[in-house]
Amino acid sequence: MQHKCHAYPDCPTDHRQCEALRKELADKSASVRSQRESQCDLRLKTFLGQGLTVAMLAALAGLGLSLAFTRLLAGMLYGVTPRDPYTLTAVVLLTLVVAAIASLIPAIRAALVEPMQVLRDE
Length: 122
Prior knowledge:
By secondary structure, this protein is an all-alpha fold. It is 77% helix and 0% strand.
């Protein structure tokens, strides 16, 4: 029995062939969607990783400089010693959290951009 496919008007196949074609196209669509999501995740991780790497290096450099200049810093601090481990830890963690948030905003924007659209626009 010949059957005209409702979804694909040019498909004069029987019902089983039409359903197989629909399933194949749905699988391809799911595969493309999955690949696009993994690319978004990769871009997000890349941007976030780069931002946090720079922030970590800056935090370590700041920590080293603060320990190197303890005499100079002692006159500027009130109620805290220059080598107070809790204060140094809190400052480094706060710096990393702020850097992560600052890196996350452009990372999300980059992850949501369609690469082909950007290439077409340029």
